[in-house]
Amino acid sequence: MAQVVFWSSLAIIAYVYVGYPLYLLARRRYGLAPVDKQPCRLSVSIVIAAYNEREAIVDKLEDCLRQVYPPSKLEIVIALDGPSDGTDRVVERWASAHRRLTSAWDASRRRPTTPAPARGGRGRGPHRAFLGLGDHPWSPLRSPRRAWPAPRLTVVRSPRHEGKAGALNRGVAAARGDVIVFADARQRLESAAVRELIANFHDPEVGAVSGEVIVLDENGNVAGDGIGLYWRYDRWLRALESDIHSLPGATGALHAVRRDLYTPLPADTILDDVAIPMGAVLRGKRAVLDPAARAYDREQPSSAELRRKVRTLAGNYQLLARMPELLMPWRDPIFLQFASHKVGRLVVAFLLPALYASSWMLRGELYTAFLVAQTAAYLLAVVGAYRLRGDRRAHLSGGGGGPQRLLDRLLSVPYHFVMLNWAAVLGLYRYVTHPQDLWQASGAAVAVAPAAGDPRRPRPARPRLLHAKPRELRL
Description:
Blueprint: H1 2-31, E1 44-50, H2 57-65, E2 74-81, H3 87-108, H4 126-131, E3 152-158, H5 164-174, E4 179-183, E5 188-189, H6 193-199, E6 206-216, H7 226-244, E7 254-258, H8 272-282, E8 286-298, H9 302-322, H10 335-361, H11 365-387, H12 393-399, H13 402-433, E9 472-474
Parallel strand pairs: 1-2, 1-4, 2-3, 6-8
Antiparallel strand pairs: 3-9, 4-7, 5-8, 6-7
């Protein structure tokens, strides 16, 4: 019996992490399905669900304004989910200032100039001083670039904190675009992100598109430690899956779907970024990845990353319970991809202890070698957990010396592997014991690339607030 457990566990683990990627490589070589990506001008609504995002919402709105897309075809929808930190009033103040500035631009019908500096100031006009916006590197108040009307801004409010899925449902109901682009408040977008996403919808077979998230460390460089390696590995897999048909999910930071393919989500849905694109796949369309549509996120501390993965993996269990058709080969066009990528990761977390226990029970040189290798890997993960906690992460982010930094990077690989599998176990416990999920604020906005001390680093909106009035505002 122990031999059956050992070899079956080893075979499934090897398939998930080695066999499945090899299958994707072979399938792409002989069955590549390219996307007919061409520029198109569909009407677009960017829907941003926000809870307590007072520190990040202004930067996200600025991101939307600087998108290289016709403003007459672009709409920004902010779905406020009962914020308690004044996020709604920050949005109102931002919209009011931009509406006044845009009116002046429309009246002049020429490229605007930066407002004259106030007396005694340092080149900060009244709007910039009032909102603290002028320091944003891409703020139209800092370097105006448009002489045409700005996108429409629609604010949808909920008096209670009900969860992200409900906020998305309300945002989509108020949206007017043919394509809905979903974006989180924290991550920063490149200026061409929306344009790149929408170009994929020129292909009538495409129903959903996912952007790509680039994880940055403290210094603004692409993360290269264990979690950064995990992101790169997962991104590589997703690219292969997209090339042959569809990827089983999208990144919540940036993805899009055709409006007529959106199905309202149950209020307590955890993985909206999987349920939405998979809904399009089940209706006969493709969900593809576009690496040219990029969003940037910061590398999270280990504790925060563990909490995020626990929530994400709990959402996978919820998704399997609510969408059983995903495990039906006759219903799901990408059954093998979904089972191997999503379900396989969950199963491996429970097979690893089975593999270790069976190695300990069996006798023989081969089993002893596997037992020693597993024990060494878990011990290295424990050492890595100690070294990567607290201030010692500075070595990993570039503050340490050569050998020390290399050691920390090597230890981060087994540590993050064990952490991600432990998160799958905790995710099942959370789903069983706390099925109701309410999402929290995502944190401050991510700065794209500016180094510490750079005067262009964005600042949050100032704390003084005004009362919100209109539901819909025209910028």
